[in-house]
């Protein structure tokens, strides 16, 4: 055992891309005895979540809530719209697209994957070619991950919609906004998205355990024509709940409802434009630091073009074993936890030791990001990993421009 670090004790900082940092107000709201679930406050608060979730998603349409994580929302979205034997098209820019495709196979669909690798966004022209060739309209949905959290690639969902319209293909456009909702700009109706899935533990700042499927009237028509939908995933009673038990198909997610209520209040007090602007500015501060470290050192951002980078998560390459070493150093020495490299492994680096990720989603502000970057800078120095100087000055200069 190495000697204990003199600068370890204090508030820990979990800077991984989900679960994100939970606001104290959310945790305090959840710390209470369970309420009655059949009437009173719990029912009123649950109803009150619906218009506010819609506002966050930028939709005037429907939302079904589930007790489950993001994977549950993936399965729910598919279960309502995709029948066994249907085909879905999955443009992949990282591991999460492959995960959603796998889930589609699990409900009996054929998932056609268009893989764009781990460093570039979707090429909508290529997606258009595949849709154009599908003259029999076998493809029932395009499953598009807005921000793939493994690579931190952000894809252009409005451009994908425009391409689908240009081709005139009737497939549903489904978006995975589990990483991006409440961080990267997303406007469901304006962008023409038919189905959107999200979880509560990233931009929505609530401990994992709740997820959401938003859907429009087109998607509802597809649902109505399904031969059958598994009862638990059926979004119809949840989205059109009249009785309290219908929201959750059973016991309410009691403490989570209180937590989400507070999180949504915080989001509305700040405003969506301001939330997006905050994430944008903090991401730019991180990028400025990374650019400075990169001079003469191995640390590079996974996505070269800022236009294709998420504002919620940053995937980094630093070469094995430095990614793991740096993570272990900041965790054991200064109480900072960075994200593992996910889905970036290759034969020369089977455990992705050369990669790591920064989560900067949800309840994060300037001093937290400066602290995270400062901790990384200390780790690079302690471990003698070559790096350029001036990273913290560069980040501070970005934040100073507010
Ligand atoms: C986190 C995440 C998921 C999976 O969510 P879980 O809550 O871990 O099931 C899916 N897609 C994206 C883009 C994510 O960031």
Question: Can you give a write-up of this model?
Answer:
The chain is an alpha/beta fold. The protein has 2 domains: 13-17 and 271-400, Aspartate Aminotransferase, domain 1 (Alpha-Beta Complex); 28-255 and 263-269, Type I PLP-dependent aspartate aminotransferase-like (Major domain) (Aspartate Aminotransferase, domain 2, 3-Layer(aba) Sandwich). Helix content is 40%, strand content 16%. It has 13 helices and 14 strands. The chain has helices at 24-30, 41-57, 70-81, 95-106, 124-133, 157-167, 217-224, 235-239, 254-270, 272-294, 322-334, 366-382, 391-400, and strands at 13-15, 62-67, 87-92, 110-115, 139-145, 147-148, 153-154, 172-176, 195-199, 210-215, 300-301, 313-317, 336-340, 355-359. The strands form 3 sheets. The protein has a 7-stranded mixed beta sheet with strand order 2-10-9-8-5-3-4, with helices on both faces. A hairpin with a 4-residue loop joins β6 (147-148) and β7 (153-154). The chain is globular and about 60 Å long. The model has no long low-confidence stretch (mean pLDDT 97). The structure holds pyridoxal-5'-phosphate. Pyridoxal-5'-phosphate is lined by residues 18, 69-71, 96, 145, 147-149, 176, 178-179, 199, 208.
Oligomer: single chain
Alpha carbon gyration radius: 22 Å
Count of DSSP strands: 14
What is the beta-strand fraction? Answer: 15-25%
CATH fold-level topology of the largest domain: Aspartate Aminotransferase, domain 2
How many domains in all? 2
CATH superfamily of the largest domain: Type I PLP-dependent aspartate aminotransferase-like (Major domain)
What is the overall pLDDT average?
97
Order of helices and strands: EHHEHEHEHEEEHEEEHHHHEEHEEHH
Query: How far apart are the first and last residues' alpha carbons, in Å?
Result: 44 Å
- Please list the strands of the largest sheet in the order they lie side by side: 2-10-9-8-5-3-4
Q: Shape from CA axes?
A: globular
Write down the CATH class of the largest domain.
Answer: Alpha Beta
């Amino acid at each position: 055992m190495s000697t204990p670090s003199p600068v370890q004790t204090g508030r820990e900082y979990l800077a991984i891309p989900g679960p994100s940092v939970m606001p104290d107000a959310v945790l305090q709201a959840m710390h209470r005895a369970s309420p009655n679930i059949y009437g009173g406050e719990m029912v009123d608060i649950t109803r009150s979540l619906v218009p506010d979730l819609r506002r966050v998603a930028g939709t005037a349409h429907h939302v079904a809530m589930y007790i489950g994580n993001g994977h549950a929302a993936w399965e729910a979205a598919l279960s309502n719209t995709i029948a066994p034997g249907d085909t879905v098209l999955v443009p992949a820019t990282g591991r999460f697209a492959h995960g959603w495709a796998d889930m589609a196979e699990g409900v009996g669909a054929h998932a056609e994957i268009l893989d764009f690798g781990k460093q570039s966004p979707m090429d909508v022209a290529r997606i258009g070619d595949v849709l154009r060739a599908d003259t029999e309209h076998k493809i029932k949905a395009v499953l598009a991950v807005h921000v793939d959290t493994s690579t931190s690639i952000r894809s252009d969902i409005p451009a994908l919609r425009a391409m689908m319209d240009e081709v005139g293909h009737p497939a549903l456009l489904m978006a995975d906004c589990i990483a991006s909702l409440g961080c990267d700009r997303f406007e469901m109706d304006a962008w023409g998205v038919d189905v959107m899935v999200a979880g509560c533990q990233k931009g929505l700042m609530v401990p994992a355990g709740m997820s959401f499927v938003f859907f429009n009237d087109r998607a509802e028509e597809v649902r109505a024509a399904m031969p059958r939908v598994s009862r638990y995933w059926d979004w119809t009673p949840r989205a059109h709940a009249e009785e309290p038990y219908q929201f959750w198909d059973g016991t309410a997610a009691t403490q989570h409802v209180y937590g989400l209520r507070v999180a949504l209040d915080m989001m509305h007090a700040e405003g969506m434009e301001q939330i997006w602007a905050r994430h944008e500015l903090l991401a730019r501060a991180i990028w400025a630091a990374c650019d400075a470290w990169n001079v003469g050192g191995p640390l590079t951002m996974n996505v070269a073009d800022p236009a294709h980078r998420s504002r919620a998560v940053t995937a980094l390459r630093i070469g094995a074993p430095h990614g793991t070493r740096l993570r272990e150093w900041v965790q054991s020495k200064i109480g900072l936890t960075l994200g593992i490299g996910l889905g970036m492994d290759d034969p020369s680096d089977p455990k992705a030791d050369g990669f790591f990720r920064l989560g900067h989603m949800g309840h994060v502000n300037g001093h937290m990001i400066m602290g995270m970057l400062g901790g990384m800078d200390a780790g690079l120095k302690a471990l003698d990993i070559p790096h350029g100087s001036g990273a913290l000055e560069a980040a501070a200069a970005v934040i100073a421009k507010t």
